[in-house]
What does this fold into?
Amino acid sequence: MIETDVLQRLLLDYQKGSRAYFKHALHGWSMAEAASDATISSNAVHILFKDVDSGEVKGASNLEGPQTIENWCAAKPNKQAIEFKLALSKINSASDLPPLKNPDFMDHVDDLSLLSHLHEPAVFWGIKNRFLSKRIYTYSGMVLIAMNPFERVDIYTDEIMRKFGGKKRAEMTPHIYGIAEECYRAMLEGKNQSVVVSGESGAGKTQSTRYIMQYLAAVDSLTDSEPSNLRSETEEAVLASNPILESFGNAKTTRNDNSSRFGKFVQLFFSNPYSGKVHITGAKVQTYLLERSRLIYQPDTERNYHIFYQLCAAAPLAEKKMLGLTAWKNFAYLRQGNAGVIRNVNDVEEFRTTQEALSTAGVPVALQWEIFRICAALLHIGNIEIAPNRDAASCSEIDAALIKCTELLGINSSEFIQWITKKQNIIRGEKFVKNVKSEAAVAARDSVTKVIYTKLFDWLVKTINKNLMRESTDSQQFIGVLDIYGFEHFATNSFEQFCINYANEKLQQEFNAHVFRIEQEGYIQEGIQWTMIEFTDNKQCIELIEGKLGILALLDEESRLQNGTDANLVTKLNTHFATPSQKFYAKPRFGTTDFVVKHYAVSVQYASHNFIDKNKDSMSDELKQVLAKSTNPFLRELLADDQVSAIAAVPAGKVVGRASAKTPTLGSVFKASLQDLMATMRKTESHYIRCIKPNMAKEPFQFEGAMVLSQLQACGVLETIKISNAGYPNKLEYAIFATRYGLLVDALSRATFDNKALTMKIVTSILTDPSKYQFGKTKVFLKNGQIAFFENRRKDRVRHLVVLTQKNFKRTIIQRNYERTKAATITIQTFARSFLARKRLTEKKKVRSAIVIQSLWRASRAKAVFSKQKSLIIRLQSAIRIQTARKTRLSLPMRDSATSVSLENTLSTLTKTVVVQVGQIAALQSKVGSYESQINNWKGKYEAASSEIGILKEEIVDLKAERDMYKEERDFFANTLSNCIQDGLLAPFGDFPFIPDTNEDSCTVARFSLPESKLKPEWTERRESILAHARVSFAPMPRGSELRDSLISSLKTQNEFLKSTVESLRSVQHRSSIYQVGIRSKSIYEEDDILAEAERERQKALLNRRITNRYSVMRRPPMAVKSAEDP
Ligand SMILES: Nc1ncnc2c1ncn2[C@@H]1O[C@H](COP(=O)(O)OP(=O)(O)O)[C@@H](O)[C@H]1O
Ligand SMILES: [Mg+2]
It folds into this structure.
């Protein structure tokens, strides 16, 4: 049971809002948030958690630790909260409480080993967070975890490669190039390197291996100032080895369309770093455990090796005919998985790539066709029909497939079929030939295929290696890349899985040792106190498999027996290992044919069926001989080093059990090659890449929690965590630690201490348990979770400081507001008081004024009364005095009364006179006034009259001037006229104002008219008067005639008339009166003038009549007539 104060300290991390992880069946690990602080009551710890996603808390299901969230999830949606409840007695360490989430800033950390809480869920979530944000690579200490994106990601360009050139791993984000670069740099320093790429099928191992090889092939030019894309021939050949091995060794499986069915260790040799530019000088490929069963059987949706389908699809017609190739569906070996075509893969193109790669690897085209010939032959072998007779299998001699395959292989068909359907036994030196059952015959047939194909594959590897070894690679540095199948665990696990898992156990052992060594080196470097850390090793499990009396040994033993069976093997295993002391072996609960091995990752149940056969890997000696006699030289070459190749993998001088005398078993060969590999790897510095397949459906960036978690467990990443956790997993440089957590101590310490001293002060002041930390040379080493603890303390401190700052700030604001309010209140009060005081003063003033007014008023009233009384008193006094005086007077003698009477009379008379005179004066004054106004009236009238007179005078002058003008005109007119008459009107008119007009008929008529220009403005009134129109007509008559005389006389009369007219004009007079305004309206002519006028008119009419048709009318000025008509 844990101590209370330690528990209290642990529970500090379980405050409300803190997050922890719970195991989840589907999601691996899911996250929950504490809905309240952790409490201790009734001897148990209680923490209420809620779902982070929904955030609701509805009741709690009381779960006792160790926690599982399944119940919680099952209870959804009704129950979204879980109460973690664990009795105090059951809590022994922090690991009994729900695993805590790391601080948020670590959510996407590049290296998971930097996590403060270093446990399975933290690693799991670290990878998940990164993967969901499309970062597929993550470091976990020295391991690179590579998630398969199942999508092209743009991080493998030459540009990016160049960025990694010459960089340290920590300087760059996690990337496979980072690992490759690290290997390269370390290799240059003289140490051989190896990279172990592991993971389950389809996790991306082969792809990763390819990227590493690409990088290493280009690495020598990455740091050049002028990047070149030129690769050396060797580098090209190294890269070309991939398509060959993939065509012959890869197949479509349900998990991976291009699954490598063999393990591969590629060593790239580099030139001496001290002799100029480093470049790849050669390479060596080593393969492991090619899957043979695939050749004869493929599960549904899976394929045989790619090369067969490529051949069927792409071989030219002639070759097809020669090799008897048709569609893949026609071959029994190809059609079982019923998936001959892979989506997005073009077998025709792939075939071309294979051919090119073979050419690059130095295989001439003719030889290539020999290879394909063998492949075709194998396909035909699969088509050989074995009649399923009950006891004796048989096959027709004319079976087309048989004929074709034996033709292609160059062997005798009847011999071949004989040793397929029959078996030779040697009993006591005597040979017996025996019929075999059809299954045995089919097995024998297929064993030929398996053996030949394996030989072919080995030959290809050998050829590739020959081609890759351009220069002598002795004592050269190398980088090895191991692309090996990861831990496998299926529903049914067979011999292949057993071998694979055995290999993985071996690799895991190396891996653990390596991690352990690295960890230890780190501690030694930093010079900290170091005690051996304990962690569970898988050594015992390996011992169980490969030990002297291990499973493999027992398998070999059973395989060598004539009547050895799988069932016997299991019985043997059970008797040897199903003991309490053996912790890594178990009998399954049901059945007797299976056995269980408890591997480091998970326990695997193996089905023993076919273990012996697969281990024996046999082909009968008779068949071997038949093949050895082949006329096909290539086949003979393939089989030439039979035995040799198998033993070659076993290091020289080693003896693999007693079986070495005969054909070595597959198990022993595999074990030997594995030991060889381990020996090679131990001489190198290892790097680890763990590929993880994030989902089954190969969907881009889909994360299936449970699947990833099981792979994490299998790939050993979690093991490294255990190793780290046993030591001091939280390591931080002093500078970083002091900077981040400096605020946990006082400012003075921060200012005075250096980073290391400050770190020591912080750590020792906060961690009370000295076993939790150690101080190295450059780093502080802390036990698991301590960084998170510091982080939480830092968070508390920051929160405290923030609250303090807020508090002070708020206080300042409130204080300032208070001061302001106070000042304002005082001001208001002052104003109010002064207002009230002024109001009171005004009141007082009013009262005072009222009193003064009242007093004055009262005084005046009193005065009036007083003066009235006084005058009354005086009058009274005077009356009394008069009385008194009278009395005294009466008592005196009488004065002259007559005199006083007369005086009084005089006075009254005088008074009256004055009154009368005053009246008179007033009357006179009014008269004077009326006169004055009359005078003023007259004065006005006078002024008006005199101005009228002035106007009239001016008019008279005008009229006179007019009259003179008329006179002049008349004279001139008369003159002219008389001149005219005298001259018989022949004289020129000179400046006569009239213009003569026309002649008419026989007599000359002159019409005169006054031109407009001659009209004077003042005449306008009289336009139609005297001068308006004059017409005279003359007849051109001979001088001295009668008519002429009469005419002259009439003219004379007319002249007279004109004269009189002028006279009358002259007689116009003007009369005027000063005072009569109406004077103008009176006629300016006398009455007889009117009569004379009438007379003149009459005469004129007469004259007119006398002058026949020709007349001269000179009318009297109408002005006179008009004037006569005026009233
Ligand atoms: N880094 C990667 N980027 C993109 N796709 C990848 C990557 N790694 C693997 N893949 C995809 O996953 C498939 C399987 O990868 P592969 O390396 O053949 O798996 P394994 O060798 O582990 O069986 C590849 O064909 C490819 O489509
Ligand atoms: Mg592969």
Remarks:
- DSSP finds 35 helices and 25 strands in the chain.
- The two ends are 159 Å apart (CA to CA).
- The mean pLDDT is 82.
- The longest strand covers residues 280-288.
